[in-house]
Amino acid sequence: MNYNLKREVSKPERFVGGHRLCAGCGAGITVRGVLRALEPTDKAVVTNATGCLEVSSFLYPYTAWNDSYIHSAFENAGATTGGAEAAYKALKKKGKIDDNYKFIAFGGDGGTYDIGLQSLSGAMERNHDMVYVCYDNEAYMNTGIQRSSATPMFADATTSPVGSISNGKSQTKKDLTEIIVAHNIPYAAQTTFIGNFKDFHEKAYKAIYTEGAAFLNVLSPCPRGWRYEAKDIAKICKLAVETCVWPMYEVNYGEWKLTYEPKEKLPVEVFLKEQGRFKHMFKPGNEWMIEETQKYVDEKWEKLLNRCEK
């Protein structure tokens, strides 16, 4: 596809204002960007797992969605979307539907990495012609900032508190993108929306218009849960990418491709120090936490470079 920023921003909004998401919420930016990749002539059926996005954008009888919208349970957005796609194919085969519909699911990391993983895995394995988009804000933000399997190691959350007997979450972040790639689906990618909008848009377009199952994992910072000023969201996204905490890559029909490589890979501490959830890591005596985090990021990055044959 030929990316044209002027054309993309001139498209009518499919996710409109008036919702109740927090100022600077990454989820809303993710949704707007993904839906903007749709061609104006195509229609969409959106499934939304319970979470921040759902409770803030659809409070009956009010909605921020201009496309058909299904609120699924926390655990079954994948199955709901796959079922809708299968029904559409059957009705189109019978000549009862002429319009072109795309099927897109949105879920946070709680409804994707954890509670909805079984449903998502099933939909990917069956290769439904659908896109599952995870807006990854790295915790259960809607219910009080509890840790999820997407929460990074040492992060302070309400269920991984920092104190005299705890240094925050003791486990590393689950690599969900790799898990989904193992399903051998046509397309999977990691991206974020600020700092490289072209990368974000092109991956959203590929995911929507590649036939078969597709998955997008989009880093979507949460000012409240990560404890940074809302105005700094662009800075946070950029640092996540430049430190390789959040690598930008895609896997297209089994071919791994790095879509962005920092000119100078920054140390992880420049990303960590901008967020209150990692504040304890910079106290005297806790230097080992930063060192361990750096080692983990470096190992993951080298593994990714090898897969992409860099």
Q: What does this entry look like structurally?
A:
There is one protein chain. The chain has 310 residues and is α/β, with parallel strands linked by helices. The chain has a single domain (5-153, 175-265), classed as 3-Layer(aba) Sandwich (Rossmann fold), CATH 3.40.50. Helix content is 36%, strand content 18%. The protein is built from twelve helices and twelve strands. It has helices at 5-9, 26-36, 52-57, 77-93, 109-114, 117-125, 176-181, 197-209, 223-226, 233-242, 269-272, 287-307, and strands spanning 43-48, 58-59, 62-63, 68-71, 101-108, 131-136, 162-163, 166-167, 187-192, 214-219, 248-252, 255-260. The strands form three sheets. The protein has an eight-stranded mixed β-sheet with strand order 4-1-5-6-10-9-11-12, with helices on both faces. β11 (248-252) and β12 form a beta hairpin. The longest helix is centred in the C-terminal third of the chain and has 21 residues, at 287-307. The chain is globular, with a radius of gyration of 19 Å. The mean pLDDT is 96.
Shape: globular
Instruction: Tell me the helix content.
Output: 25-40%
CATH architecture label name: 3-Layer(aba) Sandwich
Q: Major β-sheet, in short?
A: 8 strands, mixed
- What do the pLDDT scores average to? 96
Overall number of strands: 12
Count of the separate structural domains: 1
CATH topology: Rossmann fold
Question: How far apart, in Å, are the first and last alpha carbons?
Answer: 24 Å
Structural class: alpha/beta
Low-confidence stretches: none
CA radius of gyration is 19 Å
Write out the strand line-up for the largest beta sheet, numbering strands in chain order: 4-1-5-6-10-9-11-12
- CATH class reads Alpha Beta
Beta-strand residue percentage:
15-25%
Q: Please, what is the CATH homologous superfamily?
A: Thiamin diphosphate (ThDP)-binding fold, Pyr/PP domains
